Amino acid sequence: MTFQHIILAAGKERGRTDSFDRCKFQINQHLTLMDLAIQNSEGSQKTCIALDPEDYEFFSNRKLPENVIFVKVLNQTKGALASTALCLDELSESLPIVISAVDGICPGLILPFLEQMRFENSDGGAIVFDSRNPNFSYVRMGSSEPIEFAEKRLVSNLASSGIYYFQNKSLLIESIIWSILNQVLYEGTYYFSGAMNKLIYEDRKVSLFKIDESDYYRFSTEKEAFDSRERLKRSDQKRRNQ
Question: Using the 8-state DSSP alphabet, how is residue 186 labeled?
Fold first, then answer.
């Protein structure tokens, strides 16, 4: 399935003051986290990556797939929605869009996610898993469909991976504009929970693609990065032994 992918890799998570350089974090001797994120975008017609100036200069000097475009984010933005808006000029109108963060990866699951969104003719969607981690966003369910995306609130056991789907560019733009005009912020930051809620309020089709939490790898902090790297190693070893 042809799609476009935005990878958000600029700025730090709100409240973080450490100097952990996540994009350059070594997964193995051949791959950085940035390389892994690009690898996980395989199949996209275009992959647009929002980067801080320092990372932009570093990765621009490396050989990259022809479909990868970097966008330099010169100043700190007010969250994921604002950073996404800086990538919109690089996208075509008609193709579906996947948005993810460089520090939240679900290896090999983007295409199955897209296939389910296409099969259900969804306007928007998200990859979710069972969790109780207070750092995640959560999805409140009705009888069979999501009725609210709640930022950093445990309204259910369904956590968002931070990987989202929009059927086309117009829907994404409308959701960003609506969130900003209505000041849908959490602690001064625009998150995708607001954009998903906009689709829900309009009775759009919003679908969830459920995975196991073990298939989600988080690299937001140095500790999470080391833990995820070890899990990836074990997973790769298990596949080779099968």
Answer: B
Q: What is the DSSP letter of 90?
A: G
CATH number of 4-224: 3.90.550.10
Rounded Cα distance, 78 and 154, in Å:
23
Angle at 112 between CA 45 and CA 47, to 5 degrees: 25
Q: What is the pLDDT of residues 28-43, one digit of tens each?
A: 999 999 999 999 998 9
Where do runs of H (alpha helix) occur along 110-185? 110-119, 169-181
Q: What is the pTM of this model?
A: 0.94
In this structure, the strands spanning 146-150 and 138-141 are antiparallel
Every domain of the chain and the residues it spans: 4-224
Within 13 Å of residue 99, how many CA atoms lie on the same side as its CB? 31
Q: Which helix (H) or strand (E) holds 208?
A: strand 206-210
